[in-house]
Amino acid sequence: PVFWIVIPAAGVGSRMGADKPKQYLELAGRTVIERTLDCFLGHPRIAGIVVAISADDPFWPVLECAADPRIVRAPGGRERVDSVRSALDLLLPSAAPADWVLVHDAARPLLAGDDLQRLIDALQDDPVGGILATPARDTMKRVDGSGAIDCTVDRSTLWHALTPQMFRFGLLRECLARAAEAGWTLTDEASAIEAAGMHPRVVEGRADNLKITRPEDMLYAQWLLSQRT
Ligand code: C5P
């Protein structure tokens, strides 16, 4: 099978409160997005990488990886899902419907090589695909609009959705188009597949595959990196 990587990297990162989008912050001497790309560039089976970048983004073109022939740039969109769709459109001439696409947030630079490999190994013969995920660790509550607890949700049925999310190119493109037509708000790829009545698999991944969101995440990510090297 052929594997393509899609990296949505067109967010502004407002929750970070930094002077540039979080994917361009430096994490132990290297930008977050370069670390994220490194997770895939070393893998022998990747056919190509598409990054979705905002049209007016001045930070991407100056990175060394912007000139890497294995990486192509697609225009970013208004929401994350629009950026992913834009990247998939760019792949259309090259990718076959049954090829695999792994969508991975630019803001997750700590994806471990063994997690990536386990995801691929677990799903590559699957008709649909699935996602890296990690079991919920806290006690989980359903809360109503007024802030009062309705009930406690059985934690053993709840998982945090991580990325990469790995689906067949043709199926993912179709399901995302259908979701856009219906006006649904999606925060990941799997929800588009679920909405079409399919059941993506979860593959248990490391909880430290964190998405850089708030300033304290940078400190935690720095510490995690120092522990790995
Ligand atoms: O904001 P959030 O952390 O959910 O973003 C997840 C990923 O989606 C980030 O890598 C961000 O750059 C990307 N994104 C995008 N286009 C948008 C919004 C977010 O590519 N319009």
UniProtKB/TrEMBL annotation:
SUPFAM superfamilies: Nucleotide-diphospho-sugar transferases (SSF53448). It comes from Acidihalobacter ferrooxydans. The record marks R155, K211 as: Positions MEP for the nucleophilic attack. This is 2-C-methyl-D-erythritol 4-phosphate cytidylyltransferase. Keywords: Isoprene biosynthesis, Nucleotidyltransferase, Transferase. Belongs to the IspD/TarI cytidylyltransferase family. IspD subfamily. One of its GO terms (biological process) is isopentenyl diphosphate biosynthetic process, methylerythritol 4-phosphate pathway. The record marks R15, K22 as: Transition state stabilizer. CDD domains: CDP-ME_synthetase.
